[in-house]
Each structure stands twice: as structure tokens, then as C-alpha cells.
Design a protein that fits this description.
The chain has 341 residues and is α/β, with parallel strands linked by helices. 34% of the residues lie in helices and 19% in strands.
């Protein structure tokens, strides 16, 4: 089973629980070949309200996406066209989303930002020449600077969400525990957004083998002195779970329990289960650096050889850990150099 098939099952589950409605706008700031937009389109056009001809006609104008690679944007446009989402203008733009959205906001953001340690993009001018390589962004709506690409994307998503907007974002583990800018962003997320659900994913589903990822679900709330987040519910689909692309591929059915626990549209009726636990806000804030890298299940991998990762997966995890440590040392060295200058 190819990787994109595994991702499709997860994307469909994410769209199902977020449940975008026909009147809502849906955006993906790192859309690739438009997998999230297509899944949202298929979901929304099945809504009873979409049976109305006017609603169905307007539905095609509710989607938008951005990707920095022009070739990928062309593939996305073709993919959308083949699935019946057509218009005079392409709904996917070829640009760097992190440069800003021009004040636009969206009701729903579904995305899987690109993985990487540093944010370094080659900016191509209209004449095709390379202008520069961008490693940071000077945006008034960003509240921290960082070398972590995913933290930039998370800030961008927090900015472009409309009031009461909903987001489901695939991000690596380091977003949950990184200090400095990471801690600042997590505190802002808990304060200004209802960060209600975290899905811990098995390794290798969205990123390269050995890289651990999650889905963060959060809603934008009106400004208030009271924190918007009351509880964070975490579903552990990683501990004691080993999926591979060939021998043990993850199927859409493996997400059925998560979808049931999520209680889309009825989150107040959630109940704890073995894999699904509630963590009150005060418990989260009391953790060192607001570390949200939380597990509670006993890992039986040491007792069951079948649950141990393959040698290449274990090696990839070690490499990932070393790269993360090296990046931290580089940041420390850079900070020391700036102080001594």
C-alpha cells in the first residue's frame, strides 16, 4: 500500500471529524497536490444543504490553497479539475504562504506543512531568476521568530483562521516540546484558541521514516482574559502500534475508534478510554515548558519483539534525534555569538 494511500485514510478521518459545512471556506497553506481540499470537497458536497443548486454552485468557490513549488501547483490544479472543481481562476496559488495571506482569513484550515529543520526557501522572481534564500520572516502578526519551519506555519495558521475558525494540522513531535519559541507559541495556542484534541500518529505516515507526527485540532476563539482551552483530549495511536507500508499498512478502519471518541459535533459528551485521555488546562500549564509530548500507556515493545521497530526505522529515529540535538546546539552557538558580537 503506497504512502499516499495511508495518508488518504488519515486525511479523510480528519475531514470527517472537523466536518466542514457548505457555507465555510476551506484553505490549505501547504496544499501539495490538493489532497485535503479534495477530501473536503467530497465531504461537503454530500451535505444535505449542498442539494440546493445555488449552494452546490457556490461550493466550488469555497476552496483555496498555496504551495511554493510551481510544478506542484500545476499538478494540484489538474487534480482539482479532474474532480470537478473548476473555475475561471485557479484556486491554488504558487507562492510562499509564510510571506502572508494579505489579510484573508478562512473558516477551516486543513494542512500538512513541509517538514524541515530550517525555513529556507529560494525566492524566484517573475523573470525566473533566484532573488534570495529566506530563512526568517518579518511579519507583524508573528509573535516569535524561530528557525523551526513548523512553528512558523503554526503561527501562520493561527493568524489566518477566521473568528471561530477550525484547524486540523499535521505537525512533528518537536512542536509539542521545543522550548523558547515553541513554549511561547504553545502558551498562546492554549490561551487564545480552544486546543481541544491531539492525535498521536504512528511513525512514517506523513513524514520520512522515523519522524513522529501528530494532528493538532484547535478552534479560534474571541479575545478573553480567560484561556480558551479548558481541556486537551489526547488519543494515542502510536504506543504499541506498528504500521509499515507493506507488511502492516494502516487502513482507514484503524482510525474508526478515534473518530468515534472524537464525538464530532458533540465534544461535550466525550468519555475517557484506554487510548483517549483528558488533560485539564492547569495540568498542561504546570508541565515544564508546557511540554505537551504526553503519553500514559505502557509501551510493550520491549516485551513483544513483533512491536519493535525495524532496524532501518530505529536507525532513522536515532538520526532524527541527533539532528534535533545538533539544531539546538547550533541555536545556542548562534545566540552566544550574537551576545559576544
Amino acid at each position: 500500500m503506497p504512502a499516499n494511500t495511508l495518508r488518504r485514510g488519515l486525511i479523510e478521518a480528519m475531514v470527517e471529524v472537523v466536518d466542514p459545512q457548505p457555507h465555510q471556506t476551506v484553505h490549505d497553506p501547504a496544499c501539495g497536490t490538493a489532497g485535503f481540499l479534495l477530501a473536503a470537497w467530497e465531504h461537503m458536497k454530500q451535505n444535505k444543504k449542498a442539494r440546493d443548486r445555488a449552494v452546490y454552485s457556490a461550493l466550488k468557490n469555497k476552496f483555496s490553497g498555496v504551495d511554493i513549488v510551481p510544478e506542484v501547483v500545476r499538478l494540484a490544479a489538474m487534480n482539482l479539475y479532474l474532480h470537478g472543481i473548476t473555475g475561471v481562476d485557479s484556486i491554488v496559488e504558487a507562492k510562499d504562504a509564510l510571506l502572508g495571506a494579505g489579510g484573508k482569513t478562512y473558516d477551516v484550515v486543513l494542512t500538512n506543512p513541509p517538514f524541515g529543520k530550517k525555513q529556507s526557501y529560494r525566492i524566484v522572481r517573475d523573470d525566473g531568476e533566484i532573488d534570495s534564500e529566506r530563512e526568517d520572516y518579518d511579519r507583524q502578526d508573528f509573535f516569535v521568530t524561530t528557525s523551526n519551519k513548523q512553528l512558523y506555519f503554526l503561527q501562520h495558521i493561527m493568524t489566518v483562521l477566521a473568528p471561530n475558525g477550525e484547524a486540523a494540522v499535521v505537525l512533528p513531535d518537536n512542536v509539542l516540546f521545543e522550548g523558547g519559541a515553541g513554549e511561547t507559541i504553545r502558551r498562546r495556542l492554549l490561551q487564545n484558541f480552544d486546543y481541544h484534541t491531539l492525535l498521536r500518529l504512528p511513525t512514517g505516515i506523513f513524514y520520512k521514516q522515523g519522524v513522529k507526527a501528530n494532528v493538532l485540532f484547535f478552534d479560534k476563539k474571541p479575545p478573553s482574559e480567560q484561556a480558551a482551552t479548558k481541556d486537551l483530549w489526547i488519543y494515542d495511536l502510536r504506543t504499541n502500534q506498528r504500521f509499515t507500508l507493506k507488511e502492516r499498512p494502516m487502513a482507514r478502519a484503524d482510525l474508526d475508534d478515534f473518530v468515534a471518541c472524537y464525538r464530532s459535533g458533540h465534544r461535550a459528551q466525550r468519555e475517557e478510554a484506554e487510548k483517549f485521555k483528558r488533560f485539564p488546562l492547569q495540568t498542561l500549564l504546570a508541565r515544564d515548558k508546557v511540554n505537551l509530548d504526553i503519553f500514559w500507556l505502557k509501551d510493550h515493545a520491549l516485551d513483544d519483539p513483533d512491536l519493535l521497530p525495524s532496524p532501518d526505522e530505529a536507525a532513522a529515529e536515532i538520526v532524527e534525534s541527533l539532528e534535533t540535538a545538533l539544531e539546538r546546539f547550533r541555536n545556542v552557538a548562534k545566540a552566544l555569538g550574537e551576545k559576544l558580537a
